[in-house]
Amino acid sequence: MKLVTWNIQWGRGADGRVDLDRIVAHARRFADFDVLCLQEVSDGYPELPGCDGSDQFRALAERLPGYEAVAGVGVDAPSPVGGRRRFGNMLFSRLPVRQVFRHLLPWPAEAGVKSMQRIALEATLETPIGPLRVTTTHLEYYSVPQRLAQVERLRELHREAVGQARCERRGSAADGPFDPVPRGAAAVLTGDCNFDPASTERAKLMAPIDDTPAYRDAWSLVHSGRGHEPTVGLYDKVQWPTPSTFDFFFVSDDLSPHVRDVRVDASSDASDHQPVLLELSS
C-alpha cells in the first residue's frame, strides 16, 4: 500500500506557474499511490501568486477519477467579490473510506502574529491490514506556541481514536447517525508540519501517550541513523534559500512492522515542497 503526501502550494511550481495537471502528473510519476494527501488546496483566492481563484477542490477531484475525494477546509471566509473562499487539505483514496473527521486545530491568540485556522483531516480506510486511520494536516508556520498546541491536540485525537477503536459501541446502521462506524486504531499522521527533525514539536509529537501506541517517525524506522532528506527549498530558492525538512510521515507504533519504505521525490519542481512516499506491507 502506497501513500503520498504533498504540500502543493495551490499548484504553483518553482517557475511561478499554477498547473494542477502537472501536480497530478508528477504525483502519478512518483508512485502508483493508493492514498494521496494534499495540503494548501485553494478556492477563491486569486490574490495568491499565479492563482486564478478557481475551485481546486473540485478541479483536483475531476483529475483523479477512481479515487474518493475528501476535502478538509480550514479557512472558510467571505470573498470580497461575493461568494466564499476556502483553503485547506484533501485526501484521495482508492481504498474504501469509512469514518471521516475534520478537526479544527487549536489557534491560540497571538497579537501581531500572522496565522490562520489549521485543520487535521482524518479518514479511516479499509485496507489489507485492517482499518487504517490516515490524518493529513498542515501546522502553523509563523508560531511555535501555536504549533505546540496543535501537536498536543493531535496527540489527544490519537488517544481518543485508539480508545474508541478498542471500545465496543452500541448501535447499528438502523440507528442512523448512531451507527458505530469503525475508527481505526492503527494510524498514519502526515503532512507539512512546519517543524524540523530536531524540533521540540517533533519530540513532543512522538512522546509516550499513556497506554496508547505512540507516534514514530516512519523515516527513522526505515533509514535508521541517516538524516532526513530535505522536502522544501530544493528548487524555489526565493522563498527557501536553505533546504529544510518539514514534511513527515508518522505511524503509530503498532503499525511500525508494516513500514517498508519512505522516499522523497527530489525531482519534482511542481511545488515549493517535494512529494513524500510511505509504503506499507500487508
Please supply descriptive tags for the structure shown above.
32% strand, globular, alpha+beta, six-stranded mixed beta sheet, single chain, Deoxyribonuclease I, Chain A, 282 residues
Describe the structure.
The strands form 2 sheets. Strands 3-4-2-1-12-11 form a 6-stranded mixed β-sheet. It has a 6-stranded mixed β-sheet with strand order 5-6-7-8-10-9. It starts with a strand and ends with a strand. It is built from 5 helices and 12 strands. Strand 3 (68-78) and strand 4 (84-93) form a beta hairpin. The relative contact order is 0.17. Helix content is 19%, strand content 32%. The protein has a single domain (2-170, 178-280), classed as Deoxyribonuclease I, Chain A, CATH 3.60.10.10. With 282 residues, it is an alpha+beta fold.
Characterize this entry briefly:
With 282 residues, the chain is an alpha+beta fold. It is 19% helix and 32% strand.
Helix-strand blueprint:
Blueprint: E1 2-7, H1 20-30, E2 35-43, H2 56-63, E3 68-78, E4 84-93, E5 97-104, E6 119-127, E7 130-138, H3 144-166, E8 186-192, H4 200-205, E9 215-217, H5 218-222, E10 247-252, E11 259-264, E12 276-280
Parallel strand pairs: 1-2, 7-8
Antiparallel strand pairs: 1-12, 2-4, 3-4, 5-6, 6-7, 8-10, 9-10, 11-12
Largest sheet: 6 strands, mixed
Shape: globular
Strand arrangement, major sheet: 3-4-2-1-12-11
CA gyration radius, whole angstroms: 18 Å
Work out the oligomeric state of the chains in this entry: single chain
Task: Give the CATH topology.
Answer: Deoxyribonuclease I, Chain A
CATH homologous group name: Endonuclease/exonuclease/phosphatase
Measured by DSSP, the beta-strand proportion falls in: 25-35%
Mean pLDDT: 96
The end-to-end span amounts to 8 Å
Give the helix level as a range of percent. 10-25%
The H-and-E topology, N to C, reads as EHEHEEEEEHEHEHEEE
Uncertain regions spanning at least 5 consecutive residues:
none
Number of strands: 12
User: Please, how many domains?
Assistant: 1
Summing up helix and strand content along with how strands pair, one would put the structural category as alpha+beta
CATH architecture: 4-Layer Sandwich
- For the record, what CATH class applies? Alpha Beta
State the helix count. 5
